[in-house]
Amino acid sequence: MKARNAKINFMQKSIAYVIVAALLVFGICFSIWDYRDWWKIERERYGQGPQEGQGLSPAGKLVGPVASSFGKFRLRVPESWDKLESKEVLRFKHPFAQRGVYPTLTAWSEKTQLDLPQATDAEAKKYTLTQELDYINTDTTSIVVLTWTDGELTKQQAMAKKNDRLVKIQTSCLTSEWKIYANTFWEVYRSLVLL
After folding, report:
1. CATH node for 62-194
2. pLDDT for 66-88, tens place per residue?
3. What predicted TM-score, i.e. pTM, was given to this entire model?
4. What's the CA gap between 45 and 38, in Å, rounded?
């Protein structure tokens, strides 16, 4: 009787081990199969900005390029926005305010010894980001975009680096108006050329 119970115990344990092993093999195979699909989906639109059909308005018409001789960069800006230039900073604002707030675009450069990932980490610590970092890769540069809210404003800051110069483009508008300007801002970032 003891031998029979031992044999039954052994069979039960063997069946349990076989089931666990089969589930483990199935899980590994499924993970590999799913990873290949996930990789394709994630990389399909990498660096191309917000997707169409997300309720965003199409990008506005850009003019330019407008160059900053001090900062050694150029970019295209929205048509009909007012230019408020100082020696070191390019500033543009929409001609019409919504609830007393003008959508704005400010671009400047600063010297830094940090590389782009280190500068991005330092900037990200200053704000409470509301979405993951976005990345734009153009023929001439790589750009990182941070997004956060400040009260009723949504703000973005795009950053690119060449040699010891870090160029920053900061945009802001009312959160309720964000869907109107998001693609326009994205096209401004894509137009950035470091000289």
Report:
1. 3.40.1000.10
2. 888 777 888 998 888 888 867 77
3. 0.71
4. 12
